[in-house]
UniProtKB/TrEMBL annotation:
<keyword id="KW-1133">Transmembrane helix</keyword>
<dbReference type="Pfam" id="PF08592">
    <property type="entry name" value="Anthrone_oxy"/>
</dbReference>
<feature type="transmembrane region" description="Helical">
    <location>
        <begin position="51"/>
        <end position="69"/>
    </location>
</feature>
<keyword id="KW-0812">Transmembrane</keyword>
<dbReference type="InterPro" id="IPR013901">
    <property type="entry name" value="Anthrone_oxy"/>
</dbReference>
<keyword id="KW-0472">Membrane</keyword>
<protein>
    <recommendedName>
        <fullName>DUF1772 domain-containing protein</fullName>
    </recommendedName>
</protein>
């Protein structure tokens, strides 16, 4: 099933990008001074939001399409897991994002590090949702 393979590809791309942020970018940025840390986090967040948000929606839409094509509920489960990143981000992660975005250049203190550490833990949930969606799609394809 081509649409199912495409759903898996989108979910895997989302998961890979999210995991890269948690496993590579986040630890590296935490070695920076607060001003530099914030200066790195802001543009990275802006770019990753567009990419990861799009991939989550594409993975969800393709999962729904695969469900329509097959009536296999695993596709719908994978779609729900992919889509869950949106409400989770809006409700769970966005308050921290807004706080970090509101801090001006030169105003960063050590509290910024604590906020970015918190953000990293929140973002790890997004990585987990993506991994669960990809695993569910793989299960449906098997």
């Amino acid at each position: 099933m081509i649409v199912g393979g495409a759903a898996l590809l989108a979910a895997a791309a989302f998961t890979g990008a999210a995991a890269y942020v948690n496993l590579v970018e986040q630890p590296a940025r935490l070695h920076l001074a607060p001003d530099a840390l914030l200066a790195q986090w802001k543009p990275s967040y802006a770019r990753a939001t567009r990419m990861q948000g799009s991939l989550a929606l594409i993975a969800a839409a393709l999962g729904v399409a695969a469900w329509f094509a097959s009536s296999d509920g695993r596709w719908l489960l994978g779609a729900a897991l992919s889509f869950a990143n949106w409400p989770y981000t809006l409700v769970g992660v966005m308050p921290t994002n807004r706080t970090l975005m509101a801090i001006g250049p030169g105003d960063a203190t050590e509290a910024v590090r604590d906020l970015v550490v918190r953000w990293g833990r929140l973002h790890a949930v997004r990585t987990g949702l993506g991994a669960l969606a990809a695993a569910t799609y793989l299960w449906a394809l098997a």
